[in-house]
Amino acid sequence: MRVLLLEDEKITRISLTNTLRQEGFTVESSGDGIEGVNLFSVDPFDVVITDLRLPGMNGIDVLRQVKQKKPDTTVIIITAYATVETAVEALKLGAYDYLTKPFSPDRVIALLQNIKRMKSIIEENAKLKLQVEALAGSNIIAGSPTMKKFLETIKVVSPYDYTVLIEGESGTGKEMTAREIHRMSNRASNPFIPINCAVIPESLLESELFGHEKGAFTNAVKRHIGYFERANKGTLFIDDIDDFPISLQVKLLRVLQEQEFVRVGGTESISVDVRIVCATKVDLKEKVIAKLFREDLYYRLNIIPLKIPPLRNRKEDIPDLINHFLKKYGEGDNPDFVSKELLNQLMEYNWPGNVRELENIVKRIIAMSATGAGLELLFNEAGYSVKHEENNKVISTDYPPFEEFILDKEKEIIKWALTKAENNISQAAKILKLPRTTLKSKLDRIELS
Ligand SMILES: Nc1ncnc2c1ncn2[C@@H]1O[C@H](COP(=O)(O)OP(=O)(O)OP(=O)(O)O)[C@@H](O)[C@H]1O
Ligand SMILES: [Mg+2]
User: What domains are there in the chain, each with its CATH number?
Assistant: First the structure.
């Protein structure tokens, strides 16, 4: 445990520092408030013990600054009898306890040992919480055959450390899948760290991912630990990987290959044990063809490709999803909440925003139902009838599978030629500029189908 001692009485400071070091604590000290806060900024401490009266900055301001920089820092105030009231005020500001002068070193040691125990319990709790989450059942609704198969695949690939690339339209459940893979892996009790490449500006991405050393660039006032280090022993989920800047792709490739990297502005090689799961809404292969994504990186990421089908291709999931979201938002015990008519509307809709859109609609229906009006009315008010019509147009121009489409077109043109040729096959073949045998075999196939 790292302790910062701020005390301007030199003898007290030096003797207490030595005593605490003998007890096994890592201690730094200063007799000046400003210097203390600077030390803290460079590399935060677990515990700060500060005198109330200090040159530079008083103990209360030290407390405020430290808490602002790192809220879980434990601060102990040292006070003279005359300023106990101020120390009590400090408790309200988040100080852990105060020591009234004169105090024995044993009192400080006992206090620090308690804090150490408390911190380890908090840490243990956080770990247990992760484990409980890991043990809890899956929240993924997957009743349709495609999704069942999808879940099966996830189950098989999760325990291995292979990189996974999840492809799917917006709102299909990519992040949810990534969390599920982590939950079912041996890394479940370690961190799952999500990062979105589309949100972080390119100029910051490198130091966010790999961290930086103090002084690496103008604003690097202290060392920064990046996502890769924070995800150590766990899973790093890189969302919107297609937005990953080409300038950084080599560095990412190297980390994937060597599990090692150097912080920005640093020289030391840092080893990490991180599993990468990434997601994309677009076809990454096309980015490779357009030379916007390195081919070697693509193959390194795409070891296990997972495609989540859009909701419109697995509408059987809609009723289960509705029930799931009704439960999630507190309407679980009400089977009549969604009427048949409403359900029909929901089933017909094309869901361009996929499961997230459905989730939002269910939330909206619940919220609006509180007003007591009829649900269909609410549904219409929610603007869905309009959208629904537009959406039907989408369905009508929605193409069938390629083979089916081509076969249909073939039938159409052959029928036209046969009519024109008064059902003479040789004549029709001439019109179509096809060998007679080819037309004949096509006719046989059409008849069969
Ligand atoms: N099969 C499912 N079962 C239950 N809930 C789901 C399912 N799929 C998605 N969801 C829910 O839908 C919402 C959107 O899912 P998620 O954030 O994982 O999608 P996404 O593909 O990452 O979306 P985007 O592309 O917009 O980032 C979440 O609230 C998630 O819990
Ligand atoms: Mg997402």
Answer: 2-120 (3.40.50.2300), 145-307 (3.40.50.300), 312-397 (1.10.8.60), 402-448 (1.10.10)
